[in-house]
């Protein structure tokens, strides 16, 4: 038997140690990690209802945190969505739109240096900042991540199909043309190309290692890690450990490896006792790329939502989003609050006690109180842009489509007057048009639509210029 | 301070009491509860990905138990699906099919008395058996539940739209005709009508009370409770406590009240310390009734699946299914094993150590080892019947449609030769027909299709006869 006083002493020491740990964590500014999947659909995770893709780590992350069911991104394709996330501003304000929908290897521009990214803002309070993975906001040297507040960068500067292999254009000839003209896919370490055409099967493991090293190296100061996976954007690659393992085929293999990667990160935070003072966000940049009628296995699923990447229907812009952070994010909760990727910047800045920029409009809002469970209401209005054209808005449960267009279709956009009206909370699949029953709602949304358009100052489109 | 020996004694007594409790529970034959929702779609619960219906109790049941993602019912509409569940046999074998798709108030027949229901089988080992809710296997006195092994019955004998109010036929004129000819909706206690046209807003609460009373009354003997909710079949009714509470509208209110009802039952089992020796199954009888183009708010959602109630696409016959039973069902697991509602009878009989009937073919199999986690593989083949016509089969991940027909459509069924082929594990939404790539698979499924048809002995259809 252990003598009683020794037992008491042991408990006391354990208590002191726990108290110290807890205070040590909460006295520091919180750490932030954003994990961004590429083209992952609303329905592609176990906790969002996919029947055969297994995502135990993300499901557990949801159980330990807050899973959002009405979370939006700022654009329906990659480049403008990433610009919106990092700046808290709609693409129409930061210029990341054009006839070309994203940056390509031969694009001349990048994100304007005047934009304040999450990384740049956090650096003002001494945060260590790192980006691992996909950038896609400019690939000329002056537009690489180190010019935007990131201390370090390791990854591909644009999509994983923009090299010599596995390019996926909208048509076969377009695809062939790109493979011919693209330079070999560059892998950067900071501002230097350290490899070309890296073995993409190893990317998830290599990126995960980089993220874990960054966390370990910065464990004693506040940090911000932006981990932007290249997957499940096509071409799909999984490591040997995951290849052929998912019932969902290669797409499932790739998502399951990404799930593993997230699990590794949360495990490392717990090991280093950083879990009580770190907020981790997992989300996708836009809806799934369906590859309609071309490649049935490689396109993801928007679950119950209609349409996909490139569309302003829900499937294009509503994404899976899980926030995790014991103590900061209320555990085991599902939120139906409307929120957007542009809320991340103001929320992080508030948690880090950094004032928001006052010299420019922001399109996101601080959702700290939604995360900690004090309320369950977020954005009042959501804007659905396609390039510089406002296609639709959501206000409360109502969505009005003023223009529609099927994703990746050669057809012209179709204007609607009166707009098509759906109640998204009753009918998330946008199946039942109900405008005739609700003329008052249509008028209200029309006013909000016009008010927003009147308030946006047009800037120059930046996506179209090409390097000569 | 409590003296140490008292503390030790206390722990010892707690340990003995826990040991006794556990042995007392596990030495008894297990109790069984089947909770059957009506027309609940695959996508209508939080844990199956619905964005705005909140089902915390069912989500928790899934966390404490096993959630199936490829679980099927024996038919795509109510009456034959219930017959299949209770007998472990396809409708083609027990006669529950016809030109009329279900029993109506004026139907002359019922389930054949020669059928062995779960209740009748469990009675051979002294089980207390009760049915609360919807029967729908015959409403003449000789076809009421007490003739099929149930000790007690409280509920409506058929669908909640088959009375004088709120009838929903496929067309408006059909609907009006039914309201005129139907007798007032009868509420039975055993073999007696105790009310007509009961206030349906109170049904979930009243049924829940009945179930809780049954459990409490039978706490010291093995029991089987079959709780068949009338909802979310139309017309939809929720109690005052739930009305107007869900963002999903009335349909959501009704599902959220059903979720509450399930929560009450699991709570009662824990209170009575029956939880370690009771298996609870929650499932739906078929896919959602979409009410296409008629009533946008009252139709459920099949989530990522295609089509709905009345169809042999996945949306018609794959349902949410959660098994719960600490000690008997492995907790916090998701199973992609293919299983069916006809597996419930052989599984319960095995757990209760009752031999299976040997004088007739069963279409289900014992899935005890799937439930306890020893394996994750269930049925090899799934059959999709529409009345007596075999429309499609699934074998492994593959599904071949030999005939298709949109749900509740006046169009004629369309035969397919070669059959349409889908890989359900890669493409659960049945979007990408891949027959041309897999002629060998088509041949394999064609053989399984013919073999099954050759092995089924035709019986008389029982759904069509009408009381003169």
UniProtKB/TrEMBL annotation, chains A, B:
Classify the source by domain of life.
Bacteria
Q: Which Gene3D superfamilies match?
A: 3.30.1120.10, Alkaline Phosphatase, subunit A
Q: Molecular function (GO) terms listed?
A: arylsulfatase activity; metal ion binding
Instruction: Report the residue ranges that make up the Sulfatase N-terminal domain in this protein.
Output: 30-353
Q: Which cofactor does it need?
A: Ca(2+)
Which CDD domains does this chain map to?
Answer: GALNS_like
Per its UniProt record, what InterPro entries does this chain match? Answer: Alkaline_phosphatase_core_sf, Sulfatase, Sulfatase_CS, Sulfatase_N
Protein name in the entry: Arylsulfatase
Q: Which SUPFAM superfamilies match?
A: Alkaline phosphatase-like (SSF53649)
Q: Which family does it belong to?
A: Belongs to the sulfatase family.
> Upper taxonomic classification of the species?
Bacteria, Pseudomonadati, Bacteroidota, Cytophagia, Cytophagales
**Protein's UniProt keywords contain Cytoplasm:** no
Q: Provide the alphabetized UniProt keywords.
A: Calcium, Glycoprotein, Hydrolase, Metal-binding, Signal
């Amino acid at each position: 038997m252990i003598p009683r006083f020794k037992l008491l002493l042991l408990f006391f020491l354990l208590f002191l140690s726990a108290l110290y740990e807890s205070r040590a964590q909460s006295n520091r500014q919180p750490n932030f990690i954003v994990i961004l999947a590429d083209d992952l659909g609303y329905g592609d995770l176990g906790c969002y209802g996919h029947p055969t893709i297994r995502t135990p780590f993300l499901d557990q992350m949801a159980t330990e945190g807050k899973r959002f069911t009405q979370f939006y991104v700022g654009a329906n394709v990659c480049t403008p969505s990433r610009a919106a996330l990092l700046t808290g501003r709609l693409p129409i304000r930061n210029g990341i739109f054009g006839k070309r929908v994203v940056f390509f290897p031969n694009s001349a521009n990048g994100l304007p240096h005047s934009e304040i990214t999450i990384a740049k803002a956090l650096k003002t309070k001494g945060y260590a900042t790192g980006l691992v993975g996909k950038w896609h906001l400019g690939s000329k040297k002056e537009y690489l991540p180190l010019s935007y507040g990131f201390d370090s960068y390791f990854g591909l500067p644009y999509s994983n199909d923009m090299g010599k292999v596995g390019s996926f254009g909208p048509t076969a000839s377009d695809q062939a043309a790109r493979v011919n003209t693209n330079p070999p896919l560059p892998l950067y370490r900071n501002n230097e190309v350290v490899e070309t055409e890296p073995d993409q099967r190893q990317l998830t493991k290599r990126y995960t290692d980089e993220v874990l090293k960054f966390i370990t190296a910065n464990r004693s100061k506040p940090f911000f890690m932006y981990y932007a996976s290249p997957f499940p954007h096509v071409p799909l690659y999984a490591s040997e450990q995951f290849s052929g393992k998912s019932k969902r085929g290669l797409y499932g293999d790739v998502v399951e490896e990404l799930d593993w990667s997230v699990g590794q990160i949360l495990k490392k935070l717990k090991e280093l006792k950083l879990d009580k003072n770190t907020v981790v966000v997992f989300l996708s940049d836009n809806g799934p790329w369906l590859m309609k009628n071309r490649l049935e296995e490689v396109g993801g699923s928007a679950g119950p939502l209609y349409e996909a990447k490139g569309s302003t229907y829900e499937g294009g812009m509503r994404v899976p989003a899980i926030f995790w952070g014991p103590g900061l994010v209320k555990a085991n909760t599902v939120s139906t609050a409307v929120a957007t990727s542009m809320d991340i910047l103001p929320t992080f800045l508030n948690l880090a006690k950094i004032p928001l920029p006052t010299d420019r409009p922001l399109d996101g809002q601080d959702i700290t109180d939604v995360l900690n469970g004090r309320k369950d209401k977020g954005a009042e209005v959501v804007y659905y842009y396609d390039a510089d054209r406002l296609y639709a808005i959501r206000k409360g449960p109502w969505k009005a489509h003023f223009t529609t267009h099927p994703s990746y279709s050669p057809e012209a956009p179709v204007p609607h007057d009166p707009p098509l009206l759906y109640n998204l909370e009753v009918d998330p699949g946008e199946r039942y048009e109900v405008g005739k029953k609700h003329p008052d709602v249509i008028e209200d949304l029309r006013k909000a639509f016009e008010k927003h358009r009147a308030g946006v100052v047009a800037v120059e489109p930046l996506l179209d210029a090409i390097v000569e």
